[in-house]
UniProtKB/TrEMBL annotation:
Keywords: Coiled coil. Residues 34-68 form a coiled coil. The keyword Coiled coil applies. This is Reverse transcriptase domain-containing protein.
Length: 149
């Protein structure tokens, strides 16, 4: 069974050949019944010689697959940034608010952005003028459109 995006099993990348399961050894199958041990040993040596190349090809395929996923993700993601003076709501999970059950509000605020610290970090101030600790994850904020734009 192939378990990764490179088309190889972890066993074949480690040992250079596919695994033979115990059931195949106990019950004769086409794979185990017609085995020529001398030719089998020669094939195993060839597979071990080609193992490094096989691993390199798997690494190239893995990198290609990851680049494709990254390109897809980057095409779909929207960048969000806030400026000082913007009003935002903060996710309750981010602020570690008391758990009020499933009926509690998911967002709290509004908070005013007082400073953009860079790389998605912001300083916030509540309506009483108290400064909150910096918020480092922009995913935990959403724009508040009721308090000015």
């Amino acid at each position: 069974m192939i378990k990764s995006t490179n088309g190889e099993t972890p066993f074949s990348l480690t040992y250079g050949t596919e695994a033979v399961i115990l059931v195949e050894i106990g019950m004769p199958t086409l794979r185990t019944a017609e085995v020529d041990m001398i030719k089998n040993n020669e094939d195993l040596e060839i597979n071990l010689d080609l193992l490094e190349e096989k691993r390199e090809q798997a690494a190239i395929q893995e990198a290609r697959s990851k680049a494709k996923m990254e390109k897809y993700y980057n095409a779909k993601v929207r960048s969000t940034s806030f400026r000082p003076g913007d009003f935002v709501y903060q996710n309750n999970k981010a602020s570690h608010a008391e758990d009020g059950g499933k009926l509690r509000p998911k967002w709290e605020g509004p908070y005013e952005v007082t400073e953009a610290l860079g790389r998605g970090a912001y300083k916030l101030r509540d309506c009483n003028g108290n400064t909150l600790p910096p918020t480092w994850n922009v995913c935990n904020l959403k724009k508040c459109y009721m308090h000015g734009m």
